[in-house]
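Batch manifest, entry 17 of 40.
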Amino acid sequence: MDFPNLLTFVLAIILFPILTQCTIQIVPGATITALGTHQHMQAHGGSIVRPSSTSLFYLIGENKLGGSAFQSINCYSSPDLVTWTFVTELLSLQSSGDLGPNRVVERPHVLYNEAAAQWVMWMHIDDSSYGEARAGVAVSTGSSVCGGAYSYLGASQPLGFQSRDMNVFQDTDGTGYLLTEDRANGLRIDKMASDYRSVVSATYLYAQDYEAPALYKDGDTYFMFASHESGWDPNDNIYCTAMSLSGPWSAWNTFATVGSNTYSSQTSGVVSINGVVMYMGDRWVSSNLMESTYVWLPLTLSGTTATMANQVNWILNVGAGTWTTGPSETTPEAEASTNTLANGARTVSCSGCSGSTSVGYIGGSPGGTLTLPAISSTVAATTTIRIHHTNADSTQRYANVVVNGVSNPVAFLPTGNDNTPGTSILTVPLKAGSNVIEFEQYNGGWGGFSKR
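Output type: structure tokens
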């Protein structure tokens, strides 16, 4: 993977903050390099489940690595919602049919059926023109949510109505519900059969045609979250409440800062992480969907009111079921004179960087490297490092980030140009005191690093 020695092919790290206290953090909108693939995690439009039999969380969603057409439905696992490992493809591209080339398979969500000891997946099935508007169903081959490929059972229009964006909900009495966008009539809540494989009756029809639905129950109050229709572009998402799924439902209201476009995201799910209510959104990049990232934020529910503030980073204590805002950060300059640039690595112009400077030409055939020899940490613990970067390519770039002698491949998503930074994260152990961090080539590729 040897790229020509041109600035337009240089990957530049613009920001490199190190925490003043070591914590692992959720960073909304960051590139997440998955273990097992060393690529940005591809599980969009889905949600997180945590089976009672395991301490791991599982994220199931769409693979957008090659664009909008169906490629696979992927599953990743994590103990903490920060470090993720690729597990398997639950549905894979077939030679023809609903899961064939140039097909639309979106919004996969799963429910566990206790009686059958089986997971049931619902998803939006369509052609490339979105003219079919059907709901597909697949089932696990055993009781493990990500134990292997699911068996696809087929697709239909539930109760004879259109079905596009969708989600699923399991009430406290075990009843399953399909939430589905019926563009001709409005957003629907439909009751599932006892095996969760079909829909048997209508529960509620909203007059408004909203999409990206997600339902959460807090005590006796149901919260329905949804998005206006604005294509791939974000908008101010909304919610309403009721004491019964059949209504009456309240008026719709915003839950994030008005005008923020839900912090540039669209609802994918709302889940409980041991009591912490977490919003899951997708930050879609329509021009290159593999660049899309995840916006996960804590939601505050009080009575019938939902509110959500933006966070640069935040700390989730899974065991305690609590969360706090992220600690303060320090921002060492990659181009500082105390650092070492070797084997052709050098500073380059970057208008979006501090001092209008970045460091480029990491890797490649010369093997350029950047070494930060004295990154200080107040404690010895595992921590999340936020790395800002630029990448003017249309594909991911990669680098080895070597922390105290341990190599960590990191993916860096495209940023559109060499002057506008994006964010990648790396969670690693740091020593109390001084730490050495080096950036070098990965598989012979070009990279580059700096600080904003």
